[in-house]
Every structure is written in C-alpha cells, then in structure tokens.
C-alpha cells in the first residue's frame, strides 16, 4: 500500500491511545502512519508549514474545514495548497449555500482546536466531503487531532472511516 504501515510508536501524551483520531484508525485497524513535527505557532499557513516540515508534497496534505449550511454542519477536506470552494461544497451536499463556521463552533463540534481539527474521531459525526484530488495519491496526510501531528492514510480508508462523499470542492482562487 505504498509504504503505509501500522504505527510503530505510541503518540506522546498521557493517553496511550492518543487522540480520538488515532483511536479511530487503531480501532478500525486501518493501515496508517503517524508523523509528528516541530510547529511554528507564528506560521502564516499551518498546512504548508506541516508539508515542509514533513518533507512531503503539499498537495498530499489536507486541511479539515467545517461549514454551516443553515441546517447542519458539514466537513470539507481539501489540500492545503488550495481553497475550499464553498459553492461546490454546497452543491455536493444539496444546500443553497454554505459558510465557514467560526472557530468556537468548529472547536465545539469537533472536539479539536483550530489548526488541529481532524476529520476522524470528531465529537459530533458530521457529513463529510473529501476533495477528489485526494484520489490521485496513494496516501494523504490529515490532522491526527493536534497541531503538528499528522496521520498518513490511504484516501480509500479516509473515505470509509469518515463515510465521506468525494467531489471536486477545491479551487485555486477565493
């Protein structure tokens, strides 16, 4: 599967199973790798900084964003090299429009802090859409539930674990 193996070390912290995201992949048995790197809290773009610190193509590093349709919250997962296309995400979930949630709402819903929101192990399971560009890669990196902690997993496993639909929901422009 392109070098992804079961994690060989325990994540740092007092809980031996780590974050809820890590527990989700461990409980499932999905092949994965955990990558921790130094973090610069002053970095303008945490996702691009993560890709650089890990030495991987930034197109393989994905960010997790939470939007509000007016009736529900929805997760959008897009590469850090691109922006979430709100109109495309709205169309994918059958909503008239969507808007990014504010940080407190995203944190309350997910159980994670902004900059470390994982699509896995969220406090409230939300409908999820993964950008179709993920399918071009053998593995992708998503937050493992903390800043500077990434989970490398096959897109097919990410789709299965989050029950995500796949659609083109990213753009290079705002």
3D architecture notes:
The protein is of the alpha+beta class and 174 residues long. It has a single domain (34-171), classed as Alpha-Beta Complex (YbaK protein). It has helices at 20-28, 46-54, 86-93, 103-110, 155-162; strands at 33-36, 62-68, 73-79, 83-84, 99-100, 127-131, 140-146, 149-153, 165-167, 170-171. A hairpin with a 4-residue loop joins strand 2 (62-68) and strand 3. The radius of gyration is 15 Å and the shape is globular.
SSE map:
Blueprint: H1 20-28, E1 33-36, H2 46-54, E2 62-68, E3 73-79, E4 83-84, H3 86-93, E5 99-100, H4 103-110, E6 127-131, E7 140-146, E8 149-153, H5 155-162, E9 165-167, E10 170-171
Parallel strand pairs: 3-6, 6-9
Antiparallel strand pairs: 1-8, 2-3, 2-5, 4-10, 7-8
End-to-end separation: 35 Å
Spatial order of the strands forming the largest sheet: 5-2-3-6-9
- Overall shape: it is globular
- H/E element string? HEHEEEHEHEEEHEE
Radius of gyration: 15 Å
CATH structural architecture: Alpha-Beta Complex
Structural class based on helices, strands and sheet pairing: alpha+beta
Overall pLDDT? 88
CATH topology (level 3) name: YbaK protein
Strand content: 25-35%
Count structural domains. 1
Question: How many strands, what sense, and barrel or not for the largest sheet?
Answer: 5 strands, mixed
| CATH class assignment | Alpha Beta
Q: Specify the number of helices.
A: 5
Q: Which homologous superfamily in CATH is the superfamily? A: YbaK/aminoacyl-tRNA synthetase-associated domain
**Low-pLDDT stretches:** 1-16
Number of strand segments: 10
Tell me the helix content: 10-25%
């Amino acid at each position: 599967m392109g070098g992804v193996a079961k994690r060989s070390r325990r994540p740092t912290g007092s809980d031996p199973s780590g974050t809820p995201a890590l527990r989700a992949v461990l409980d499932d048995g999905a092949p994965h790798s955990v990558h921790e790197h130094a973090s610069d809290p002053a970095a303008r773009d945490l996702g691009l900084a993560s890709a650089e610190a890990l030495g991987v193509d930034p197109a393989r590093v994905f960010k997790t964003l939470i939007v509000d349709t007016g009736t529900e919250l929805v997760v959008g997962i897009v590469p850090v090299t691109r922006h979430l296309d709100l109109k495309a995400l709205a169309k994918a979930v059958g909503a008239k429009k969507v808007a990014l949630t504010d940080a407190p709402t995203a944190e309350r819903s997910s159980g994670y802090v902004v900059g470390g929101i994982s699509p896995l192990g969220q406090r409230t399971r939300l409908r999820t859409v993964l950008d179709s560009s993920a399918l071009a890669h053998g593995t992708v990196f998503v937050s493992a539930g903390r800043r500077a902690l990434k989970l490398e997993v096959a897109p097919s496993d990410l789709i299965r674990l989050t029950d995500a639909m796949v659609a083109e929901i990213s753009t290079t422009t705002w």
